[in-house]
Amino acid sequence: GAVVSQHPSRVICKSGTSVKIECRSLDFQATTMFWYRQFPKQSLMLMATSNEGSKATYEQGVEKDKFLINHASLTLSTLTVTSAHPEDSSFYICSAWTSGDQETQYFGPGTRLLVL
Amino acid sequence: AQSVTQLGSHVSVSEGALVLLRCNYSSSVPPYLFWYVQYPNQGLQLLLKYTSAATLVKGINGFEAEFKKSETSFHLTKPSAHMSDAAEYFCAVSARNTGGFKTIFGAGTRLFVKA
Q: A interface mutation test: which of B105, B109, B110 has the most A CBs within 10 A?
């Protein structure tokens, strides 16, 4: 079945550095992918909608210059956390929908980011 | 626009007892509705989904949910709780917009199962 992968699964970085997280749809094409953030003991919050070949759409309160999204192909979206700070430490999860009669949403396994 | 409300951030039941986790939603267009389970330090696992077919949806691990349009509810139930059901449960609503389907999650309900 359809699978969404994320890389890396876990990353630790120093404050001020940038971190790139990849989200791939492994056996289907996704013109749209979504990025979520989940803080400890909280729910998933939608950050942005990643659109293949065009600019991402960010949710209110999410800094587009802080969280750069690139959706360069139909199977890959990347989220770059620029100049990361400890408050950016979180669990980042992407998702993608398959198309057709049985539209289904698949979530990646998540990337845990720890900024020291 | 859509939203989802989960009533009760914590629910505690005894092993073998009925599990009932409540979810109400709002959506300006016909929604898809989901229940996910999340175990500590893990990703999401889909329990079941409603996509405008049968209103009573059966999922994995003995869970089921009933879509009630008149009540805008999609409560999750399981007849008999098992210790392994202890986890965080999220209700989610998806609706089509210009960018495709957009999914919004409820705040989550943590289920505790007592021996």
A: B105
- Residues of chain A positioned with their CB less than 8 A from the CB of B43: 93, 107-110
Is A109 near chain B, with CB under 8 Å? yes
Highest mean pLDDT among A13-17, A50-54, B44-48: A13-17
pLDDT tens digits for range A27-43: 888 888 999 999 988 99
Number of H helices, E strands in chain A: 0, 11
Q: Are A15 and A84 in contact (CB under 8 A)?
A: yes
Cα dihedral sign, A18-A24-A30-A36: negative
In B, minimum Cα distance to A40 occurs at B41
